[in-house]
Amino acid sequence: MREFLDVVRSVLDHEVVDSNEMPCGMVDDIEVEGGAGGELRVTALLVGAGAWADRLPRPFGAAAKLIFGRQRTRVPWGEVSVITERIKLRSRASELGLGGADRKASRLIGRLPGA
Amino acid sequence: MKKWVEIFLGILTAMGGFVEVGELVFSVNAGAKFRFSLLWVSLVGTVGIIVYCEMAGRIAAVKEQPVFNLIRERAGLDAGLLTLVAATAVNLLTCTAEIGGIAIVWQLLSGWPYRWLIVVAFVFLLLTVWVLEFEWIERVFGLFGLLMCVFLVAAVYLRPDWGQVAAGFVPRVPHLESTSEYYLFAYFVVALLSSIMLPYETYFYASGVIEDGWNPSDINLNRIICVVGMTLGSVLGVALVILGTQVFQPRHIEPELPGAAALGPAMLFGKVGLIAAILGMFFAFAGAAIETALTNAYNLAQFLGWPWGKFRPARDAARFTLAWAATFALSALVIITGVDPVSVVEYSIVFSVVILPFTYFPLLVIAADKDVMGEHANGWLANALGWFYLVVITLAALAAIPLLIITHGGQG
């Protein structure tokens, strides 16, 4: 039996958490393989402002990249472990190159007392 | 027992956190200009904010997932982003207005230079949110905001004609002298409604539900706190209208500055009244400034998938922390340039109502969706009230800017 999943409804624009349940972005776009007439298969999740900005009308997309950056991280579909409201991954965010901006910001404020 | 304490504190903090600078200014002025004839707007607005906060809180408790996260999931990227941008801009404006309000109110008490007080307020807000846990932020500002009850006591002491007060709750337009007076009345209807239903309140409330770790078993707690706490909070707003009517209207004073409201308690109870009024306003405005700054950080983080929440140490929610700090910093920068704080209050209220339909519509759609909410989806009453208020705020949103222009910013 073949299984189908409505990826637009159940995956796209959902929150991504790593194996420690730490939020590490949203499913900002989905990479699919295959062409017209053939079978389509999801190969990866794309995470980062660079991915969602490209889904906006052009001038807005350019503005979004200016503010939020062009980062776009590819997470192979095989990394997905559980799909509920959140998309849970098998690895830690740092191993997949996710959450980099937060780690950078964390180094910045981590030195303050009480952080 | 613990549950009862939670309900009791929840109600008191909802009450103490209800009034902010915009509502204070417009309520007192509403009384000074139109006596009790705008009281029905307080009633309409209060039921409206209860309806939408209850929905937002229920969504967050049932899904144990933040509202902005769901908005993006259900409304999609484009519509979600529109809501995010609009809400962020207006929250920034509201935060600016609150910081201006804090500086003005402290100036009354200390006589220090206004600009220095803005710097002090900024540092105070930054340190408070950095140091205090979420629960304590809620309690400190909610409970000390209850010092605003001095306005309620003053309103009773002023012996208004209670028959006239009661009549004010019946929706009607009073007989006025000129067309421009009618426009001004309409402007006050829109502004007072907006000041009660400010957009940050629902989002802050829903994120608070997650900060406090509520789950589906808490939906009755949510309902009680919304209904009782906000109804009691609205009584403070009504007291301010009565104060405006009894103190300012007979003397033909236009109480433009937020600090003017303190005149009522000061006249009646001397120094003690003045200090209670000023401290009450300070905690109410500072609480609202904190809520708007945190709301901006919540919204951004939930839309973009950043780790968020005061329940995490700051280093584990670093961009979230930077976002609320940046909101305080930007707001302080805007108000320190010397822009007129009263105009900022005015614009924050008018632009809030313009974006209100964008921020409320997704909440209504999600709360009504049985696929998302299951058995906790809106019943007929929540749906009927939700749609009624959506129509009301859409009409108010359409009328807001034309009325702002026609009345020269409420000057008549």
Account of the 3D structure:
The complex is a heterodimer of chains A (115) and B (412). Chain A is of the alpha+beta class and 115 residues long. Chain A has a single domain, classed as SH3 type barrels, CATH 2.30.30. Chain A has five helices and seven strands, in the order αββββααβββαα. In chain A, strand 3 (29-33) and strand 4 (41-47) form a beta hairpin. The model of chain A has no long low-confidence stretch (mean pLDDT 89). Chain B has one domain (19-166, 175-406): Amino acid/polyamine transporter I (Up-down Bundle). Chain B has helices at 2-16, 21-34, 39-63, 67-110, 114-131, 134-144, 149-157, 162-168, 179-196, 199-211, 219-248, 263-304, 318-336, 341-368, 370-373, 380-406. Chain B is 79% helix and 0% strand. Classes of the chains: A alpha+beta (115), B mainly alpha (412). The interface between A and B is medium-sized, with 31 and 28 residues.
